[in-house]
Design a protein that fits this description.
Blueprint lengths: L29 E2 L11 H15 L11 H15 L8 E4 L1 H13 L5 E6 L5 H7 L3 E6 L8 H11 L3 E5 L11 H13 L3 E5 L23 E6 L12 E5 L1 H10 L7 H11 L2 H23 L2 E2 L2 E2 L1 E2 L6 E5 L4 H10 L2 E2 L9 E4 L3 H19 L1
Parallel strand pairs: 1-13, 3-4, 3-5, 5-6, 6-7
Antiparallel strand pairs: 2-8, 7-8, 9-10, 11-12, 12-14
Helix pairs in contact: 1-8, 2-8, 3-7, 5-6
The protein binds pyridoxal-5'-phosphate (PLP).
Pyridoxal-5'-phosphate binds next to helix 3.
């Protein structure tokens, strides 16, 4: 019970009107709202995880390996297979989701009196890392097709002199991958400030053939950090394991700001077990990519108000489409039919994650129904 003279909480004033981040976690039949992998781990993956966790449990009285050496070696080996880029395990860093990896980056390279820059529309968590590290937050705009205009990006960097630049590629919520020339131009401009450039590749495994990863630039740019996650392609959002690749100097800076023993022994064991099954998990990613391309093509054939839907090109496991005069009504209509998608992105657009073929069909049926109902 609060007494009348209970002292007010000394909340930081800039947090007074803030609400916690989060998409609705609703219990509906078809959940296509947070870009999860729709396929639960197979029984053999579950068995490997259980065995690894049992082994870790035998020494839970001890703190875990603070530097998660074995996991970093496994992650480096995975990146060599996935992107053909060979890295020393000391160039790899990990934390509880790539969200925490990026918070480490802002803790080490942002801070009071410093600026972080990104290009909107983009991932809604970035301004929160800036806020929580007292870093000034500045956004440029992406072009009509959601790419980043190279000259405008370089001009913004020169004007704002940021210490951190965040580039999501493939971008969320648009699905857009940046071309390497744009990333290189940003890296060159950043070197003159100097700034750290973070290329957030949370969706990299879903990129279309021929789209290179920024990992290929690491040997030339010591101020580049490429972040990845096991939440999407690896079907392990519940694990909370994100990581990055960078120069060892950059990684050493992150080691200073991390909490001691931030990666539990259980998380390290689970991640290593999942990585041991990378081949079967990546085979599923290929299916999801094909499903995504078919969904983009289908959406492009749909009409609203006598004109075709606009559909952003996607290199991720979701598709941004629109535009609707009342996107909330469309979102609600889908939810009423048991399909949860995300009301996000620029005004009038909606985002749907790629599900199983059955879930995609349920989404298509519901959308056809909702559009038909609203036009009659
Ligand atoms: C999902 C997502 C992440 C991953 O977050 P985790 O903390 O690793 O689950 C990072 N960046 C973007 C743009 C995302 O959409």
């Amino acid at each position: 019970m609060t007494t009348p003279d209970a002292p007010a909480l000394p909340l930081r004033p800039e947090l007074a009107d803030e609400v916690p981040y989060g998409a609705p976690q609703l219990d509906v039949p078809v959940r296509l709202n947070v870009n999860e992998n729709p396929y639960a781990p197979s029984e053999d993956v579950v068995a490997t995880i259980a065995a690894h966790v049992a082994e870790a449990a035998r020494t839970l009285n001890r703190y875990p390996d603070r530097d998660f050496t074995a996991l970093r070696a496994d992650l480096a080996a995975y990146l060599a297979v996935e992107s053909g880029v060979r890295l020393d395990p000391a160039q790899v860093w990990a934390a509880n989701g790539s969200n925490e990896v990026m918070l480490h980056l802002l803790q080490a390279f942002g801070g009071p009196g410093r600026t972080a820059v990104s290009f909107a529309p983009t991932y809604s968590m970035y301004p929160e890392y800036a806020r929580d590290t007292h870093t000034r937050w500045v956004t440029g705009r992406r072009a009509e097709d959601f790419t980043v205009d190279t000259a405008a990006a370089v001009a913004l960097i020169e004007a704002e002199q940021p210490s951190v630049i965040l580039l999501a590629s493939p971008n969320n919520p648009t699905g857009t991958a940046l071309d390497i020339a744009t990333i290189e131009a940003v890296l060159d401009a950043a070197a003159r400030v100097p700034a750290v450039v973070v290329v957030d590749e949370a969706y990299a495994e879903f990129r279309r053939a021929g789209t290179p990863s920024a990992l290929a630039l690491l040997d030339r740019y010591p101020h580049l950090a490429v972040t990845r996650t096991m939440s999407k392609a690896f079907a392990a959002a519940g694990l909370r394991l994100g990581y990055l690749a960078a120069s060892t100097d950059l990684v050493d800076a992150l080691r200073v700001v991390r909490l001691p023993y931030h990666l539990s022994a259980v998380a390290q064991a689970t991640a290593r077990a999942a990585l041991a099954h990378r081949d079967s998990l990546l085979a599923q990613v290929a299916d999801l990519r094909a499903e995504r391309d078919a969904l983009v093509a289908w959406l492009r054939r749909q009409q609203v108000g006598g004109r075709p839907l606009r559909v952003a090109q996607s290199d991720a496991n979701f598709v941004l489409f629109g535009t609707f005069d009342d996107r909330h009504a469309v979102w609600q209509g889908l939810l009423d039919r048991g399909v949860l998608i995300r009301e996000t992105g620029p005004e009038g657009w909606l985002r749907v994650s790629v599900g199983t073929p059955g879930e995609t069909q349920a989404f298509k049926d519901a959308l056809t129904d909702v559009i038909g109902e609203r036009e009659n």
